[in-house]
Specification:
Elements lengths: L2 E6 L37 H7 L19 E2 L5 H15 L8 E6 L9 E2 H5 L11 H25 L8 E4 L28 H4 L3 E4 L1 H6 L16 H10 L6 H5 L11 H4 L10 E5 L2 E4 L2 E5 L5 E3 L7 E3 L27 H6 L8 E3 L3 E5 L17 H15 L12 H9 L12
Length: about 425
């Protein structure tokens, strides 16, 4: 069997919670990037706390007047350093025998909120100007740190004589967030939209495949660029194929659950076939990419029918970022234009990444091959009516398989069990 290691952002310890585990801090998925024992939710000045405990000979910094306190600090307590160091330890301790397989899942917490970076690296980008509160400078610092960390892991694999049998998959989980003033200032230019939206800027992300194994078995693919679709769920089917196992989930099938959605992409990635076996991407309820066309129904989570009774669809969050964003004149503190719903949705509309797209006939339709920036809505063209109808019918088929069970509510027992049974990590808390 495989030595399986899961290391990174989604395997962090839970925040230290007070005696009452029902407070929201216990459930926050976002933690400070400085490794301390203080409660962690968002940016909470834990770097300052570490300094005041006498653990450092120099303090932490607040680079801009609107940035949270102590955004720049020492590498010695930087969370990402712990993740990289753990990956290096795993590789170093793994047998170099190619007959002993290794599956290592490294989920970086950067580049991600909160915007925090080690001081020396941050100051290496002091030359950057026309910046909003030093956000792009911190982003550049985090990207550079991640790049260096990946390089260290690659070097470790080579030193352990594992690189020639390694295949490395890397993919972002979503487009960059381009909203709110304090911690979300990514730029998806030239794509439209941002994280939380279904516009291309929210769902089309950077990805690559590398490794010595790819160079050995498919040298013609090294350095090439592929334009075909690949969905994150396809990695499961692809990994299963490479490991020589059947991806079918028999227990799920017996329980009447939907089949595995993933498609084995190895024939495409290795050059055995010229085109991707995936021809559609079901982006969301009411949103479908089929071939070159992408349909936004008014029924989607960010869509609605125009209130004037015209039958037009309205899609939100469709901003067009500039080449340099955020810049020195970016204004994040104007009034938002919705005040109800989840807090994150309110924040999304309090930024420059807003934009309401109105589309005739109850839908928006784009040719994302010819128009990847989604400027030219085609839904008003009578010739596209059959395409819209066909895509709506396909959406209805897909949405019939939507698995959305009752997920319950926050339960203090989850926190208690994590602290007492799982050494501070999230784990099962309901037992038969």
């Amino acid at each position: 069997g495989y030595f399986h290691h899961d290391n990174g952002y989604f395997n962090e310890k839970i925040p230290n919670c007070p005696q009452n585990p029902s407070v929201p801090d216990c459930y926050g998925p976002i933690v400070d990037l400085w490794d301390t024992t203080r409660p962690a939710y968002g940016v909470n000045s834990s770097c300052e706390a570490f300094y005041r405990q006498g653990n450092m000979t120099h303090g932490c910094e607040q680079p801009g007047p609107r940035m949270p306190l102590y955004t720049v600090g020492p590498e010695m307590i930087y969370e990402e350093k712990l993740f990289v160091d753990r990956c290096l330890q795993i590789v170093d301790e793994h047998p170099s025998d190619p007959e002993t397989p290794l599956f290592l899942n490294y989920d970086s917490h950067i580049v991600h909120t909160p915007l925090q970076a080690p001081a020396p690296l941050y100051h290496s980008f002091d030359f950057m100007d026309n910046d909003w509160d030093h956000h792009r400078q911190i982003y550049a610092s985090m990207v550079s740190y991640l790049d260096t960390g990946v390089g260290k892991i690659v070097d470790a694999l080579k030193d352990a004589e594992l690189w020639d049998s390694t295949i490395w998959f890397c993919q972002s989980d979503n487009g960059g967030p381009s909203f709110t003033g304090d911690n979300h200032t990514a730029n998806n230019y030239p794509l439209r939209g941002a994280k939380y939206s279904n516009w291309e800027g929210g769902v089309r992300v950077n990805a690559f495949v590398s490794g010595g194994y790819l160079a050995r078995v498919a040298p013609q693919r090294v350095g090439s660029k592929l334009e075909g679709f690949l969905h994150v769920c396809d990695y499961y089917a692809t990994f299963a194929y490479l490991a020589g196992v059947d991806p079918t989930d028999e227990r799920a099938a017996a329980a009447g659950l939907p089949a595995v959605d993933g498609v084995n992409m190895w024939p495409y990635l290795s050059g055995q076939v010229a085109t991707s076996p995936r021809t559609e991407v079901w982006n969301d309820i009411g949103v479908l990419t089929m071939g070159q066309y992408k349909l936004y129904n008014a029924s989607g989570p960010y869509g609605s029918l125009a209130p004037d009774g015209s039958g037009d669809a309205v899609q939100q969050y469709g901003c067009f970022p500039g080449v340099v964003f955020p810049n020195a004149t970016t204004d994040y503190y104007g009034p938002g234009w919705i005040t109800k719903g989840p807090a994150w949705k309110q924040l999304l509309l309090q930024s420059k990444c807003v934009g309401e797209q109105r589309c005739p006939n109850g839908a928006c339709l784009y040719d994302i091959f010819a128009d990847p920036t989604e400027h030219d809505n085609l839904s008003g063209d009578p010739a596209m009516a059959p395409k819209i109808q066909a895509m709506r019918e396909r959406l209805a088929q897909l949405e019939a398989t939507y698995f959305n069970p009752k997920r319950g509510t926050d339960d203090g027992l989850a926190v208690q069990t994590a602290q007492t049974m799982w050494k501070g990590y999230w784990g099962p808390f309901v037992f038969p």
